[in-house]
Amino acid sequence: MTQVDTSKKIILITGCATGLGKALVEILSQNPNYKLIVTARAHRLELLRTMFQESQDLIIRELDVTVETNIFALVNEIANMWGRIDVLVNNAGICYRSVVEHMDRESEMIQLETNYLGPMALIRSVLPIMREQMSGHIINISSVSGMVSMPTMGSYSASKHALEGASESLWYEAKPYGIKVSLVEPGFINSDSFKNILLPKKAKLSAKLRGPHSEYYLSMSPFVESLMKWAFATPESIAHKIKKLIAQSNPPLRLRVTLDAKVFSILRKLLPEFLFHKVMFLLLPGSRLWGHRSYFGNRVRAKKLNSSSAHA
Ligand SMILES: NC(=O)c1ccc[n+]([C@@H]2O[C@H](COP(=O)([O-])OP(=O)(O)OC[C@H]3O[C@@H](n4cnc5c(N)ncnc54)[C@H](OP(=O)(O)O)[C@@H]3O)[C@@H](O)[C@H]2O)c1
To answer: Which atom of ligand 1 approaches the CA of 114 most closely?
Structure first.
């Protein structure tokens, strides 16, 4: 039978090779009272091993959060090895940039599987263990996009809104068992993660060929990138806040960890909805030009159609 050592918190983290996940492992691994399960997809394992030394208190494992059988196998392994799981940090995430019209089913599924379905599978697999031990803390890394949706970020926002909704339900369901649930909501983070932005085929083509909606990409992409470049918040500053969250005996359901996240949450509460969206529309760069290119494209197409039907 597994000898259960309750003197150290067992913490499972996803997506640890870069950005926030990496910063979190760097900070949490300094605490001798923690045992970490540091995970990443297969192609990042070597990098992970060069960054972190495996020890009694830190193990490195492959985990793609979209592969449910691997999730259950890993959680089983932890339960057999250490007998408990105290904290799950659902950090792994991806972000598609696309207007709604350019997304395709396959890209929608990849977005949702990574940011919502994967975290849900992880939660489902650790919950029975946490219920049994009558304690635990589930930390889901959400985003400002879990409370506000911006153009070209519909699918990403949907995945974070889904995560927010389910986490709120879980808060009620887990509370009687002493299990805490927290949503960490960062705004823009000063990191390289904008380099990992994904574009579906139609969005790539439109941006390249200046097709309909290309003006959205041309205005939103540099805007988001510059906000990330100039943001005060770093993966390290956010990791420090998550470290404090883990140590809290009564952690909040929502933790806004950047200034812009706090401002957006206040604006959403204070402004009537119609005003909020009007102000946002006016403030977003290039919004006065949105629709002009597609309008132009449609006009040319309509003209061509008219002239070809006239020749017929
Ligand atoms: N950066 C921001 O401005 C920002 C703002 C708000 C919220 N967030 C959220 O913060 C979290 C961390 O993002 P970040 O800024 O640190 O970006 P990041 O550097 O791109 O980190 C995301 C990590 O998730 C991993 N990942 C992607 N798909 C995976 C999968 N199927 N299975 C396991 N791991 C996977 C990536 O690894 P691979 O190399 O294998 O892809 C990467 O290491 C995400 O949930 C993100 O949505 C970020």
So the answer is: 31
